[in-house]
Write a structure and sequence with these properties.
The protein is α+β, with helices and mostly antiparallel strands. The chain contains 13 helices and 17 strands. The strands form 5 sheets. A 6-stranded mixed β-barrel has the order 3-4-11-5-8-7. Strands 2-14-13-12 form a 4-stranded antiparallel sheet.
């Protein structure tokens, strides 16, 4: 009913009248019925294209000046926004509860509500925001309530350039501009570390669930899915172009995104998330871990029973859901052993493994790094589009420029006026007077219709009264006679 009412408010008067006339008083209309009606209405209107529209005879009467000044009223459908923080009758940036939150909590609240980070309103992205207001502190394109003063580190290494130090403001923009997650390998590794992996169920297009191995990563601001697994799900791929980068500026490109439902294998937890599609992710762990000496509680339902065996990671679930998954349960197996952590998906295993090193001598680092890819691309765009220094004017172009400077002015209502320019070749235009006189004589012969003559005379008299034209009594040498004819619009 909400959809039906919203669509009905946007219909023109005649279409709405016919829609209401066919409804039954006993039954409420459905959205499908309205769509069927609109398709049929569209077909009829398309058929009518090209036929003259019948207008009432009153439309033929010329309007008086007082009627011409009256503009019809226009009605616009307005929706009043409520606060996404407290549901109050005000915008979120005026909310007292929102202002009491710290910057991180405000940013999370804005992101959860899907608001623009610049104007804190719904319906568009930060990149598409038309507001000319920016942060009062740093002048960047985010709201002042989302600005965070981050102290500059004093003991900064000389071999680490300052451009790679991520700023909080850049991080806030990165959530809209680009995804940031990185899987990088390291040649030096002191011990084996188990990352938070889980086996879950993912729902495909036919509402069938497939098992999937995921990495729970609090350092990623985006959810990722490998391209082979995404194709297996046969879900609708939404085309995007988003750069994903991280450690050492390693970069990949996400060309598509999908939305799907994930659920736990051991309980009833489920959620619907959006994932960026990337070619591949990684394999975890880097080497098989010997767990024969571990005392794993048999009563605990491990969400990834094969956590110690290297397998492909098909999904990464980022910070969007990570902290909503983690619960209070903790269990340490032994000194130097990894930790058992309780989550809404089940129990996971994560942490260092004492006395075991990877035979591959490599590790995996999950890093969220704010990236200036879009700014760099825009800078190159402006460099390519920079207008070169203008070439000197030709004598004719310079004459036109001088003519404009000397004759242009602004009238009483603020409009610019300029005299028509003529050059020395105006004599080549020919005998314009005879052509204009011949056209005028043909116009006089058409005045057999007295009403036509009266309307033409009134129109020309009005132009002369308003100063749009003046009578000339001699034949000017520096001018041109424009043939004139009347154009009638009966409506």
């Amino acid at each position: 009913m909400i959809l039906v009412n919203v669509v009905a408010k946007r219909l023109d008067k005649e279409t709405l009248k016919q829609w209401e006339s066919q409804l039954s008083q006993e039954e409420l209309p459905s959205y499908i019925e309205m769509m069927d009606y609109l398709r049929e209405r569209t077909r009829i209107l398309q058929k009518m294209t090209g036929y003259a529209e019948q207008r009432p005879s009153s439309a033929l009467k010329p309007r008086t000046k007082s009627e011409q000044k009256i503009q019809p009223a226009r009605n616009f459908v307005q929706t009043k926004e409520s606060c996404y923080c407290c549901n109050g009758d005000h915008l979120i940036y005026k909310c007292g509860q929102f202002k009491e939150l710290n910057v991180s909590s405000r940013y999370a609240k804005v992101k959860q509500a899907g608001l623009c980070f610049n104007c804190l309103r719904h319906g568009h992205r930060t990149l598409d925001c038309n507001s000319d207001k920016t942060c009062k502190s740093c002048k960047r394109k985010h709201h002042s309530l989302l600005h965070e003063e981050k102290p500059v580190p004093v003991n900064q290494s000389d071999n680490q350039p300052t451009e790679q130090t991520p700023k909080s403001d850049d991080c806030q923009e990165a959530a809209v501009q680009s995804g940031s997650v990185n899987c990088a390998t390291s040649l030096m590794m002191t011990q084996q570390v188990l990352l938070s992996t889980a086996e879950i169920l993912v729902t495909e297009a036919g509402n069938i669930s497939f098992p999937c191995r995921v990495l729970l990563d609090s350092g990623s601001d985006s959810n990722l899915i490998s391209e082979p697994f995404a194709k297996r799900l046969k879900l609708t791929l939404v085309k995007i172009n988003m750069p994903i980068s991280g450690l050492n500026n390693t970069e990949t490109q996400a060309k598509y995104k999908i939305s799907t439902k994930i659920s736990s294998r051991v309980n009833s937890f489920s959620a619907i998330l959006e994932f960026l599609v990337v070619p591949t992710i990684t394999n975890l762990p880097t080497a098989k871990v010997d767990i024969r000496s571990w005392s794993l509680p048999a009563s605990l339902a491990l969400v990834d029973p094969s956590f110690y065996v290297p397998k492909e990671i098909q999904m990464i679930i980022g910070a969007e859901l990570f902290f909503d998954l983690v619960k209070n349960g903790r269990m340490k197996l032994a000194a130097g052993s990894p930790m058992l952590v309780e989550t809404n998906l089940g129990w996971i295993v994560s942490g260092p493994v004492k006395g075991q090193w990877s035979s591959r001598k490599g590790g995996v680092c999950q890093l969220n790094l704010c990236e200036e890819q879009i700014n760099h691309t825009l800078a190159r765009f402006w460099e390519l589009e920079t207008v070169q220094e203008a070439s000197p004017f030709t004598p004719e172009e310079q004459a036109i420029e001088n003519h404009f400077v000397e004759t242009h002015s602004r009238d009483d209502i603020g409009r610019y006026t300029v005299r028509l320019p003529f050059n020395k070749n105006k004599g080549q235009l020919g005998d314009s007077l005879e052509t204009a006189r011949s056209r005028f004589n043909r116009l006089l012969r058409s005045f057999v219709d007295t009403n036509k003559q009266i309307r033409y005379t009134e129109f020309m008299t009005e132009n002369q009264t308003l100063g749009h034209m003046v009578e000339v009594f001699d034949n000017p040498k520096d001018g041109y006679f424009l043939p004139h004819h009347a154009v009638y619009k009966e409506s």
